[in-house]
Design goal:
This protein is an alpha+beta fold and 102 residues long. The chain has a single domain, classed as 3-Layer(aba) Sandwich (Glutaredoxin). The protein has 5 helices and 4 strands. A 4-stranded mixed β-sheet has the order 2-1-3-4, with helices on both faces. Strand 3 and strand 4 form a beta hairpin. Helix 1 packs across helix 3 and helix 2 packs parallel to helix 4. The chain is globular, with a radius of gyration of 12 Å.
Length: 102
Amino acid sequence: MSIQEIIDQQVKGHPVVLYMKGSPDFPQCGFSAKAVSLLRQCGVQDFFSVDVLQDPEIRQGIKSYANWPTIPQLYVKGEFIGGSDIMAELFQSGELKSLLAD
């Protein structure tokens, strides 16, 4: 199975997926910590996360999967939402919470 197929299965196999540096309990960068915090503020305590620091192939593969150069990356119901800056904008407008609630 190719790395793109693995990523595709992860993204489509879970309602909320966060590709990040570190884990939700121990984020390894500020942007990942912010992404986790925003999800939790929206009431999402349990989500599928992938630590890109553990797998260089995933770390590179996820960037081409979404054509998005940075980590973290959030996917909701198989759809790419964005990184922590976009998540913050959606959170401020209330859109993130409704995206996650559907």
